[in-house]
Structure formats: C-alpha cells, structure tokens
Design goal:
The chain is of the alpha/beta class. It is built from six helices and five strands, in the order E-H-E-H-H-E-H-E-H-H-E. It has a five-stranded parallel beta sheet, sandwiched between helices.
Length: 153
C-alpha cells in the first residue's frame, strides 16, 4: 500500500486533518509520514532588506553569510514544524520533518518528485467550487504530479 507519504503542512486545521489521515494510512503497513513546511526564502536583494542592512551598518553580505542565514532559516522552519505538529503527530514514531522554500505549489511538486513517495496527503481549505477550480494549492499539486494525491477536508 502506501509506505511513504508526503504531507505538506501549514498548521491549518485542514493540514492537521491531513496528518491524521496520513498516519492512519501509514500505521498498518509500518509506513513513514514526511511533513513538509514550505515558506518563501528571504531575499537579500529586496529593497527593504538592503535599506535595513544599511541602517544597521552592514554594507554587503558575503556568500558565506547568505548560506549561513539560509541554513538558520531552514533550521527554524523545521523547528517550528516539529513544534506545531507535535500534538497531531502524537506518539507516531515514523515521521520525518522537512522544510523547503519557494512558491507552495512548485515547491511541493518539486519535493514530491525528488523523493520516493507513494502518496501525497493534503488538506483542502474548503474553498468554493469556483475558487477550487481556479487553482488552490491542493488542486494545483494534484494536477501537477504523477503520484496519487489524497485531499482531506
């Protein structure tokens, strides 16, 4: 059945329901659930950032500093994910936590395709049929990947 399940997680009630469903599917087959947090990576070229850096006396940020800030950013995302999902994950042990950056749909699709997943389980925001047809993240992911997607309400 589904031994490796990816669950994009944004701490919404719908995402929590998706985690519960994924765990229910994974438990009987000793499967693994991977929770994925997606966020925009800070832009060091953004005018606001450049202005704030100058006001703080920082003239330029080197590549090493950028990489360190990015590592800290991903570590922070992952720590937040673990904390936010702790209650819904409960005592389930076969869970992995990952963080990536980018536009939600694109990042989820790329992450899913780069891994060895059998299924994606996502929450549905409960949008109206019209807005859903226009392309919520869950529907956009379902249209973009070749593996099965379970959308949980």
């Amino acid at each position: 059945m589904y031994k490796s399940i990816l669950v994009p997680y944004d701490n919404s009630d719908h995402a929590k329901e998706a985690v519960k469903a994924a765990i229910d599917l994974a438990k009987p087959v000793d499967g693994t659930v991977t929770l994925l947090s997606v966020s925009d990576l800070p832009s060091f070229d953004d005018l606001t950032f450049v202005s704030a850096a100058r006001m703080a006396g920082v003239q330029a940020i080197g590549e090493d500093q950028v990489q360190e800030i990015q590592r800290e950013f991903y570590a922070s995302l992952k720590a937040n994910l673990i904390e936010e999902a702790a209650e819904v994950v409960g005592d389930f042990q076969n869970v992995q936590y990952r963080a990536t950056a980018g536009k939600a749909t694109t990042a989820i699709v790329e992450f899913a395709e780069s891994g060895n997943y059998d299924l994606i389980v996502m929450g549905c925001r409960g949008l109206s049929a019209i807005r859903g047809a226009m392309g919520s993240v869950s529907y956009a992911v379902a249209r973009s990947v070749k593996l099965p997607v379970l959308i949980v309400k």
